[in-house]
Design a protein that fits this description.
Blueprint: E1 10-13, H1 19-27, E2 32-36, H2 48-55, E3 63-68, H3 73-83, E4 87-90, H4 96-105, E5 110-116, H5 126-129, E6 135-139, H6 159-168, E7 173-176, H7 184-191, E8 195-198, E9 203-204, E10 207-208, H8 210-231
Parallel strand pairs: 1-2, 1-8, 2-3, 3-4, 4-5, 5-6, 6-7, 7-8
Antiparallel strand pairs: 9-10
Helix pairs in contact: 3-4, 7-8
Length: 233
């Protein structure tokens, strides 16, 4: 799913809690599903057995993303093997040596590195990881807190930094953090990401809301249309 130049903005629906939610997201047009493993904080975590059960049901070409807080190549690889996900989303800013070791440990698994955009220093992480992952995902966590925030904050970060990251990245970039049907047009116009990643913005009382998700998808397609029209004007 990592084409160099997308004809449309991809959508990853994260915090999937069950097979029912997975099929709801797929039916609404999701390109990928996020399955959240154990985290130090944040919503949407499920046990590895549930992740494995859901991942086994995801049909191609939809991708199943395992979100892991493991920080070593060995720990990440074992987490992927336990769950069977097609893609691993590394939510910590881990040692680049571990990321390179992961290439050898999981040669057939897609690797996505999360970059938490706290300030412009995020731009310095492009070269740190670009040679050993397939894509980046920009989020609004704060990994240096006493109890680290590694995603699921529902906060929008500085999209000006994200746009600069996209311009300099040699890899596809997903945008996460506080996305809703009401701001997705601005997100696409400002950042021009390869894909969007969302969780809380399409949930009601913690459950995936089909109406909100449908509204989000409609807003994405309209934003894509406007950006395409403007680029050809």
């Amino acid at each position: 799913m990592f084409d160099a130049q997308p004809v449309r903005t991809r959508v990853k629906v994260c915090c999937i809690a069950s097979a029912e939610e997975a099929w709801t997201a797929i039916a609404t047009g999701a390109d990928a599903l996020g399955l959240v493993g154990a985290m130090p904080s944040g919503p949407g975590t499920i046990d590895d057995a549930t992740i494995a059960s859901v991942a086994a049901q995801v049909p191609p070409p939809v991708a199943s993303f395992l979100l892991t807080a493991e920080t070593t190549a060995e720990g990440i690889a074992e987490h992927v093997r336990r769950t069977g996900a097609s893609t691993v989303q590394i939510v910590n800013h881990i040692d680049p040596a571990q990321t390179r070791a992961l290439v050898r440990a999981l040669p057939s698994t897609r690797r996505v590195q999360v970059i938490h955009v706290e300030d412009e220093s995020a731009l310095g992480l492009i070269d740190r990881y670009a040679d050993s992952v397939h894509a980046f995902l920009l989020d609004s966590g704060r990994p240096t807190l006493t109890v680290p925030e590694l995603g699921g904050t529902g906060r929008v970060h500085d999209w000006r930094v994200s746009a600069e990251f996209v311009r300099h990245s040699p890899l596809p970039v997903f945008l996460a953090g506080g996305l809703t049907p009401g701001n997705v047009d601005e997100a696409i116009e400002t950042v021009r990401p390869y894909g969007l990643d969302l969780c809380s913005g399409v949930r009601t009382d913690g459950r995936l809301d089909p109406d909100k998700l449908s509204g989000f998808m409609t807003a994405v397609r309209e934003a894509d249309r406007l950006v395409s029209t403007a680029s050809h004007a």
